[in-house]
Amino acid sequence: MGISRITIEVGGYNWRVHGNKRGGRFQSDLVELLGNERLDVPLNRKLRLELRGAVAKFLDLEIDEVKPI
């Protein structure tokens, strides 16, 4: 798998995730908040886990195959 740029919706926000598969797992290199909105929720462990799950679902992977964000 080469470099991927995917757009997902998590927590009511649109995110673009850049990354690729390394060592058998997808690793994100950059996560962007899209649009002109400001993030009004904390970027905490729960939100990062939701992002990780959405990336796994989009790429048809198990969550263990996506490194933590």
What is the number of helices? 1
Mean pLDDT figure: 92
Strand arrangement in the largest pleated sheet: 1-2-3
Percent helix range? 10-25%
Radius of gyration: 12 Å
Give a short overview:
With 69 residues, this protein is of the alpha+beta class. It is built from one helix and three strands; from the N terminus they run βββα.
What does the model show?
With 69 residues, this protein is α+β, with helices and mostly antiparallel strands. It has 1 helix and 3 strands; from the N terminus they run βββα. It has one helix at 45-58; strands at 4-10, 13-22, 25-33. Strands 1-2-3 form a 3-stranded antiparallel beta sheet. Strand 1 (4-10) and strand 2 (13-22) form a beta hairpin. It starts with a strand and ends in an 11-residue tail after the last helix.
Salient structural properties:
69 residues; three-stranded antiparallel beta sheet; globular; alpha+beta
Present the secondary structure layout.
Blueprint: E1 4-10, E2 13-22, E3 25-33, H1 45-58
Antiparallel strand pairs: 1-2, 2-3
